[in-house]
Amino acid sequence: MSSVLLDFFPSHHHQQIFIFFHSLQSFFRRASLSFLSFQFNRASLQHYQSILLSLKPTLFKMKFSALALAALSQVASAHYFFDVSALNGVESKSFQYIRDFTRPTKYNPIKFSSNPSADIRDNSFADGEDIICNQGATGTGGNTEVLEVKGGDVMTFKLAVGAKMGHPGPTLAYMSAAGSDVKSYKGDGDWFKIMEEGVCNASGDFTKDAWCNYDAPSFDVKIPQGTPNGEYLLRVEHIGIHRSHVNQPEHYVSCAQVKVTGGSDGTVDAEMVKFPGAYKDTDEYANFSIYGGAKAFPMPGPKVWDGAASAGGSTGGNTEAPAAGNTEAPASTPAPEAGNGQQNGGEQAAPSATPEAGNNNGQDGGFPGAANQQFQGQTGSNGSPCSA
């Protein structure tokens, strides 16, 4: 970002400023105010130097008050990205071990190319290379440090700018062996899944806090005990499924660079997948409805490998079955209408009898009494409502 703008605020607010102006850009685009759709990024902010300087007294007085920061966090919780990792509680710097990505709006999701063009940001597609580690991240490994870990270590992945995962949906983690140099590895090899969490709050709202990591600022990933020594990409992901009923899941993806030590020199015997290719817009998770009551959720990807000698294999993902309980939603809480545009703040669209074409206005939806679903993989996430 231009130093002209950053000079107004302390260094620990720089990333908040960047996200704030990208949020304004998205607002203007949705409002079709093309003459106001400024490209607030590092290059073009130079063009607005005189404007910013004239506003400096006012901006300086604001100093990003607690109220402004709280409002910004609410905006960021609509869309978000992972930039900080912590190993056994020791936190990294932003993008120290997580590969940075080059898309103009880091916080926006990755979606299938078959989705309406108005709902896709930065030409970032879930059936393209961006699904590996996010846009441009296949080439930023050289600027990213490598974190040394051991089997059994717990890594925490934290969202930027105080955001929370404001959408229902699963969290997942994968690893891919990178050979001798993870910094130059694109992530185009084989991937195995080491963790997944779905629904774990039996008394929660199936459209919201029934999901393990709903509204959480971070989640934990445990390195399997049996992971062989070597360098790996560790891919973490949250999938927002609030619009999967209209075939529009939202993928939030980041990759950390790690080196496993203290283990064996063997190989991983697990079901492997490749990105892109592991997810398709015809998959069950991509057409799943959280509306109408709790139901089994079809986890995307392969089965979880826990470090045992053999993880088995299957041609499909894991399905989370709800425990006994009432899985019927009240008749007055049907699915939202389909429509263009991004959802904001984890809110759902106004109800209608069935999902149908129309304008999605982002109203709250709620289905109390969702049944419990067991999650697979590692222990519950830091800040999430569930625990193993």
TrEMBL record:
Obligatory cofactor(s): Cu(2+)
Top EC class for this record: oxidoreductase
Region of interest (Disordered), residue spans: 308-388
Locations listed in the record: Secreted
Annotated ranges, domain Auxiliary Activity family 9 catalytic: 79-292
Polar residues: compositionally biased ranges: 371-388
Gene Ontology cellular component terms for the protein in this record: extracellular region
UniProt keyword annotations, A-Z: Carbohydrate metabolism, Cellulose degradation, Disulfide bond, Polysaccharide degradation, Secreted, Signal
Catalytic activity: [(1->4)-beta-D-glucosyl]n+m + reduced acceptor + O2 = 4-dehydro-beta-D-glucosyl-[(1->4)-beta-D-glucosyl]n-1 + [(1->4)-beta-D-glucosyl]m + acceptor + H2O
Enzyme Commission number, as recorded: 1.14.99.56
Main location group: secreted
GO biological process, one term: cellulose catabolic process
Compositionally biased region (Low complexity): 327-351
Gene3D superfamilies recorded: 2.70.50.70
Family membership: Belongs to the polysaccharide monooxygenase AA9 family.
Protein name listed in UniProt: lytic cellulose monooxygenase (C4-dehydrogenating)
Organism: Fusarium odoratissimum (strain NRRL 54006)
